[in-house]
Design brief:
EC 4.1.1.15; Aspartate Aminotransferase, domain 2; 585 residues; cytoplasmic vesicle; globular; seven-stranded mixed sheet; palmitate; five-stranded mixed sheet; 17 helices
Length: 585
Amino acid sequence: MASPGSGFWSFGSEDGSGNPENPGTARAWCQVAQKFTGGIGNKLCALLYGDAEKPAESGGSEPPRSTSGKAACACNQKPCSCPKADVNYAFLHATDLLPACNGERPTLAFLQDVMDILLQYVVKSFDRSTKVIDFHYPNELLQEYNWELADQPQNLEEILMHCQTTLKYAIKTGHPRYFNQLSTGLDMVGLAADWLTSTANTNMFTYEIAPVFVLLEYVTLKKMREIIGWPGGSGDGIFSPGGAISNMYAMLIARFKMFPEVKEKGMAAVPRLIAFTSEHSHFSLKKGAAALGIGTDSVILIKCDERGKMIPSDLERRILEVKQKGFVPFLVSATAGTTVYGAFDPLLAVADICKKYKIWMHVDAAWGGGLLMSRKHKWKLSGVERANSVTWNPHKMMGVPLQCSALLVREEGLMQSCNQMHASYLFQQDKHYDLSYDTGDKALQCGRHVDVFKLWLMWRAKGTTGFEAHIDKCLELAEYLYNIIKNREGYEMVYDGKPQHTNVCFWYVPPSLRVLEDKEERMNRLSKVAPVIKARMMEYGTTMVSYQPLGDKVNFFRMVISNPAATHQDIDFLIEEIERLGQDL
């Protein structure tokens, strides 16, 4: 097994196993690392070479600390003028940092040490010899550390320790063997953009306080609408706090389009409204209906075929039933990439039905929208251009750091009319610039986080072709997994056929169950296999993959791949680890 820090070698090889016989790569990285100040360079070199294998030009080991927390400086100038000189965190508090008088030096030293912690964590996230998770039960963590808030401030030495402790027990979601959620990976440009966004610390409601970010949102949303297929990228949109809120926006706007009076008079002024979505759709559709006063009983679930796709004939049948009862169908939410199966509803057929009955068509492409970037796979969303609105989460398949979710609307101005409240202290009508760039009044929120910059900067760094390569690779890895296990002893597929997305759903059947003839007992015991294997994965810290039941199907593994750091070797490791952890069950 590789030594700690050897994951840095993985930048030069697919399997990430490292190549200590070729120190040139590490030396080159180390030379770059020396440009960092505050001891960061030395720490990165230590990670690259190990404490006993640092190159002569690395400048030696990390500057020592005294037990009091005083950091020795890293420069060779005497008298010393570097930020770390005479900085003793044990006697410093947040009030000693900027904007405190003479706070520049302790601030620089403190932030450089925070950066040390972050960079070491980033490097370890890609090191396959490190754990994905250092799992502890909640009561253990609560007892091991004092997490309570106090009246008196702690010193900066303790604050840095809190940063280290937090990351020690954090899940390494960028680890190549983390497959637990739809959002995985750690993009370096996206990370840098998030740091910049936090540093700027502004709000998205007006151009006057976020000029560049507002313009980038305009440019990026327009590009996304072009990719969807709306002529010239026309329409509207907004970045929201996740796909659930984007879906609720779609429901809100669809209701307003049909009954604009609901904005002032409420649900009492309109007939009973009915929304339709597939039985495999995301639970956020029902949550949105509950939040908007429409009610969960007014969300009709449409049957799916064996692959999890909505059946159009059942949709039309249920629409006619609702109309015969005097209710009003107002929204159909089709799914492009369901959460569990990764299924794509037949959007063209759904669009025809929505057009026939004059119903708003929404496409929840939170998970599958990224495939629009791929010439090889975008056909799976054929018909999305006919939707009235689309949810698309770049923080999922495109690997943008959380959170980054867009709601795109085909009709321009509708979102503004639906949500604006004309707050005069923010949206003055006599400003000296184009007021169309004051986008805050079309949002439900007042304060809105800057979510666009990381997507925009990654897009500039990768280009559309870079996202395409990322997505194609992840889908190829899913097919690789499917091809290995479809006929492998001990594995059963949840449905037939190769995956539509990167979702691969399967049961692992331990040897003791392979010859069991009692079907009911077999299913009962099989339902307990995935939870036990998952728990063992977490306790060993080797990998993470999700499981769940669905309908009459007992617990099965749902493998998803969205991390471009994953390789064929990581897929092989996952299979071997499932077998190792589950063979005795």
